[in-house]
Structures are given as structure tokens and as C-alpha cells.
Amino acid sequence: MSSLVVLLPTQPASPQVELDYATTIDGTVPDTHGTAAAVLLPAATRAGTEVVAVIPAAMISWHRVELPKGTSAGSPRLRAVLEGLLEDQLLDEPESLHFALQPQARAGGRLWVAACDREWLRSAVQLLENAGRAVTRIVPEFAPEGETVLYALGDPDDPQLVSAGEEGVTLVPLSSVALPLLPEPAQGAPLIAEPAVAALAEQVLQRPPGLRQPAQRWLRAARTDWDFAQFEFSSSGRARALKRFGTVWADMLAAPQWRPARWGAVLLVALNLIGLNAWAWRERSALDDKRENVRKTLTQTFPQVKVVVDAPVQMEKEVAALRQSTGATSSRDLEAMMAALAVAAPPQRAAAAIDYTPGELRVRGLALSPDEARNLAGGMRSQGYSAVQQGDALVVTQEVAP
Known about the structure:
Distance between the termini: 59 Å
Domain GspL cytoplasmic actin-ATPase-like: 35-141
InterPro entries: ATPase_NBD, GspL_cyto_dom, T2SS_protein-GspL
Radius of gyration: 43 Å
Order of helices and strands: EEEEEHEEHEEEEEHEHHHHHEEHEE
GO cellular component, one term: type II protein secretion system complex
Protein name: General secretion pathway protein GspL
Organism: Caenimonas aquaedulcis
């Protein structure tokens, strides 16, 4: 995922403070990294790039609580509940702190809660906002998740050692004197060090560490499910969600790891277009063949027709002219309609009046009951006519073939 990851400063935020940052296209490998003032941080190179603010480990305290039943992550009284549960564990007044509950938190079990200075966090986020780098997510540098790992970080003047895992996050100075302060599971945990303090970490812990650049650690922190944008910092949650959607969409369009999917989508669309065109060509060819057959039938049956404009209409006109010249009757003539009506009508019924226009016969005075009218309509339909009762008249017309 395309991201700008910024490590928030431990000192009060101001325009003059320089921030450590890293950029990435795929969310795993740093593209660029460095230090710059907020206004000089890299701008988004494409739509959807998210800005992730990382809170240093030194600015967070971690606590375990058990939420009472009936309290959920979305409860309006969650803040008050946390203040009551943490009151005896905090060194500062709860009102001055910002709390973040672990992801997928549920009542009834022990949960991790992070606390940090509210005003410090607000000013740091506002600094990025004022510089045009609106924060999408706020994550901790280390979180209590996964297996326990030791991290040696900082510089030779201020080296630090962090133990991070599902048992908690502990920050101590990188010295042999502070080692007993680490939790017991951390004593034999894997060791990762920044190059600046790698030699010191090997000297203190008596084992060689694995090397990792700070930028790699920040990108790893950005992939956590933790998000400190809760309570008053979640007011722009909808905007963050839209921006995150834009980030995912932009990554799908440009990120290297999505290249096979993009080619697959293009290939799928191309195959569908080819298939649709082939199907349309086949249907068009079949329709043209049918039209040609109708034209041939017309010109072979009536050689005098030299120009074919509308074959069915011309065929009907030629048949009508032929019938007229030979004196033959058609199903639309009065004699044919009367013969069909005589077969379908109830016996011994005399019509009071008969009106005929070409193709339509109106018969009055039959006095049909509803059952008789239905039976007559069925009989006429079997002979190719429709019979509809309109007032006192029975209207007979030739049914049009579908």
C-alpha cells in the first residue's frame, strides 16, 4: 500500500521540528526515508497515498483491563469506563490522556489499552494537517502482539531496548543494569538492532543481533491493526475511510504487487469483448441468412417483383392480389368469418344485425351467457380468430400470429 509513514516527535510539535519519515509503494519495502520539517515531507505522488503517524514507544504506556459486560468499543460511555479502570495505574490525570483500545475488543476478557498525552498527540497531528499531510491512521511504534522480540534502537548517546510481544511492551535503557527490568519471556527472545547501536546491543546481551533499518521498523508498525484514531480523534473517521479506499484503489492501479491482477483484469475484459463481438457477428450472420432466404422466396414465387424493400409486406400484397384475381377467399373475408362463427356459436342462435368491415365482423343479438361467451371464444381461437364481447356486440377479428 502506498504510504508516507511519519514518526511523531517526542518533543512538543512545532514547524521547526524535524520528523523522521519513510515512503513506500508496496507497504513493505522503503522507497525513500530521511528527516525533514513537516512542510518539507514528501507529498503524495499519486492519488490515494495514505499518511500514517507513528507514536514513539517512549510516549505510550500500556495497561491491561477487563471491560464490564455491556460495554463495547462503540459504547458512548467507554471513555468514562476506561478512566475509572485505569485511575490507579496512571501517573497522570486520566483527563489529560488519550486512550486507545486494542482492535476487535470485546467485553468479558482482558484487553490492552494504550495511553498517551492527549495535547501532545493533538498538536503533532495538527502539525501534519497544517502541512497538508492529513493523517489517515495513528499507530504505535510497538504493539503488544505476536511473539516477543527485543529491539535495540536509538543512537550511542541514548540507546534503548524495547521488549514487544503479546505479553506487553517494555522500554528500558540499553545497558546491563536495566536488563532485570525486562519481563522474563524476553530474556531469550530474538534480538533486532539498528546499525547505530548493533555493537552495543551485542556487548550488553552477549549475542549477535539481526540488523534492521529504522525505516523498516516504521513500515512494520504501519501494518498493525492498532489505530489510535479513537474517541475525539475519530471525528473524521468517514474521511479516513474514504481516503483509505482511495489508497487501496490507487494501489490496485499502480502498485507492483497488483500487476498480475491488473493484467488478469485486462485479459478478462479483452476475452469478454472478443467473445461478445464473435457472438454478435454470429447472430448478425444468422439474421442476414434468414432475410436472404425470405427475399429468395419472394422473388422465386413472384418473379415480377424486381426490387425487395420489405419482403413480408410485399409477399402479403402479392398473395392478396393473386387471391383477388382468382376469386379465392381469405380468412379475413366475410364468408370465412361467418363459417367459423357458425361452427363455434351455440346452436339455434340468430343474429339481430351483422356489420362487416375488412378483417372485422360485428354480430349483435346472440344473447350469450358468460359460459357460452367463453366457449365461443375458445372455439374461435382454435380456428385462428379472436371473439370479444363488447356491449351487446360480438367482435370477431383474425388473430395475429406472434
